From TrEMBL:
Active site: 58 (proton donor)
Pfam families: Aldo_ket_red
Protein name, per record: Diketogulonate reductase-like aldo/keto reductase
Organism domain of life: Bacteria
Transmembrane feature ranges: none
Site (Lowers pKa of active site Tyr): 83
NADP-dependent oxidoreductase domain residues: 20-268
Amino acid sequence: MLDDPIPAITFPNGIEVPALGQGTWNMGERASEAEREIASLKAGIDLGMTLIDTAEMYGEGDSERIVGRAIKGRRDGLFIVTKVYPWNASRRGTIEACERSLSRLGIDQIDLYLLHWRGEHPLADTVEAFEDLKDAGKIRAWGVSNFDIGDIEELLAVPGGRHVAANQVLYNLARRGIEYDLLPWCQEHGVPVMAYSPIEQGRILHNPELIRIAKANQATPAQIALAFLLERDGVIAIPKTSNADRAAENRDCVSLDISDEDWAALDAAFPPPTRKSALEML
């Protein structure tokens, strides 16, 4: 199955990344799990899932430290994403937070630096800091997380705001609200969407119809849920696992050949939106 390549997504700056990466939410919170987490991340990298997403919020920096240990000595070819807390996202605070993240990660440059969600600091100040960091070579690109259409429109009106390179949002079979307007906008403008919690932290895996379709395709429910996201243009899924075998299972979702009938059955079980709704967050 590993002969099947992971689909690629191209960022506005021309950088290509795999559409299936690795998340790290909750990693670094228990010292007893550190070695398993590091081993899982290394296994995922070996399988081609070279995009790794983290944040200063996760474990108050300990997730970044786990990532740093996992990528030590193998930085080339990886795409590292991390995020700044909203309350750190002033012009000066963003730059200082970036320096701390770089130190915890043990790298000289972050590939994609995101504003985790909107806070009290003006977007203009955050964007100015992002642009300064990019000019200084500390980051390659910047983006946002948990931004809805209205937030994006405000961002575009800020000097430099049109340099936004990605939007990371909650998106999975059970959370399809972005398909109404946000996802089409991002697709039209070439802004990749990073889908966090792509299997709803496991909650959707007990859905009877998802289980039936998985069995029909000799797959697991999680693989079907990930394949659903990879079927969407411009979407990057970032499942989190601390199990190397599960990382390999996630990787194998790219080999599935799901029928039109099964896609239709998934739409019936998890209906797409018919009207605008508020952006969901976890």
